[in-house]
Amino acid sequence: MDVVLVRAAQRGDGRAVEALLGQARNQIFRWALVMTADSDEADDITQIVSLTLHRKLKSFEQRAAFSTWLYRIVRNTVAESRR
Question: How far is CA 3 from CA 16, 62, 67, in A?
Fold first, then answer.
């Protein structure tokens, strides 16, 4: 993901948030599909993660790559859905 786009989204730029979510959506779905082996569940996870990403974007501290942070959100969401 583009660091400039992430920073703009963190500042509240609505277009940047939309663009970031658009770029991330396919990756989120692919990770969720691998983790769940079910496309319907992967769709549900993608929706939840998209909302979580929007809500928690400002907490991303850029200590690691954005994709690493996003992967952890997907992994945690899948784990939570299994409980």
Answer: 11, 9, 11
Nearest residue to 6 (alpha-carbon basis) of 79, 83, 63: 63
Instruction: Confirm if 46 and 29 have CB atoms less than 8 A apart.
Output: yes
State pTM to two decimals.
0.87
pLDDT in tens, the chain (83 residues): 678 889 999 999 999 999 999 999 999 999 999 999 999 999 999 999 999 998 999 899 888 889 999 999 999 999 999 88
Rounded Cα gap, residues 82 and 63, in angstroms: 29
Q: Decide: helix, strand or coil at residue 64.
A: coil
In this structure, what are the phi and psi dihedrals at residue 60, rounded to the nearest 5 degrees?
Answer: -70, 120
